Amino acid sequence: MNQNEELIKVDIREITQQDRESFDKNGFLVFDNILPNQSDIEKLKKHAENCFNGEFDKGITPDDVTWRPNFSPNDLTRELANSWKTDSILAQLVLNENIGKLACELLECDSIRVGQDDIFWKPVSGKPIGMHQDLPYLECVAKKVITVWIALSDVSKQNGTVEFVEGSHKWKDLPAELNDSNTNEEFHNPKNYLKGLENASKFNGIDSTVNLPIHYVTVKAGGCSIHHGKLWHGSNTNPSFFRGRMVVAIHFIPGDSEYNPNFKPHSAFGRYKIFGSNKLEESFYPIIYSKNGYKSPNIQSLMKK
Fold it and tell me: b/e string for 6-18 if b means 16 or more Cβ within 10 A?
């Protein structure tokens, strides 16, 4: 990024009381057009595709990639973790202060940091992502999680969008021994993408998932959804033969989060744990917004090659 190059523009309206009440009741919100410039959307998509093809403009390999060209099945839903570390343009989106402010307000904390970002690229006929919650995955580093899910292409039920189970963030927690929804086998291309939801439903006295209120997120490219860390969600196979979809999901955690000594860190997080300390280092978990104005000092440099 040179000094004259404009950053990715993010435009988010103010949160209303009605928004807060809806989020509390349903566990999610949907906003249109937070990326108002089509040229920014195309740039983000191009850089995301480059990352999946092994081209990283910072020269740093992502923390995890589930699909590789000429090796992985073409109908696998592709996931890439922590693009902000590998690509300067994607970092401009993930580390954007306006998105951080939105997450901070809804999570009701004093500051917010990035726990992890994920790019999901579901091709035509792309396989499902199993029903799951985000918090159990990040529980080793946070007590609360909120996810901002940003569409880089038009998304709807017609191309395998994310499905939210309305109000499920208020269900009783499924015990860890009954919750395998974040394992690779049940997350990527599961035989039954509803399995985790079925287990959670039964634990909460719901015999069938058939009549559960499901919201299929429908937005144009540049729109987003925001969901609670305990909301059950996932996505079915992309039924379209001509329209894939790409999104960036950013998992935010409170700025004062630490490693929880009662949980063995998932490998995605354990690799960044400092010996003898539970502190989350800002080099790996940057604070992008605080009510007092503080941000990690490396934010601007992370948006450069």
Answer: eebebebeebeee
9 Cβ contact partners less than 8 Å away, ≥ 6 residues apart = 35, 36, 37, 40
Distance CA 295, CA 111 (A): 9
Given CA atoms 5, 295, 99, 193 in this order, what sign does their dihedral have?
A: positive
Segment 161-198, tens digit of pLDDT: 999 999 999 999 998 888 876 666 778 888 899 999 99
Contact 268, 275 (CB under 8 A): no
Instruction: Read off the pLDDT of residues 248-266 as tens digits, 9 standing for 90 and up.
Output: 999 999 999 999 998 888 8
Q: Report residue 165 as tokens.
A: 């189970």
Per-residue tokens: 213: 């209120």
Query: Measured between alpha carbons, how far is 267 from 235 in angstroms, rounded to an integer?
Result: 24
Amino acid letter for position 120: F
- The residue written with tokens 């990690």 in the block is 296
- The b/e string for 273-301 (b: 16+ C-beta within 10 A; e otherwise) is beeeeeebebebbbbbbbeeeebbeebee
Mean pLDDT, all residues of the chain: 93
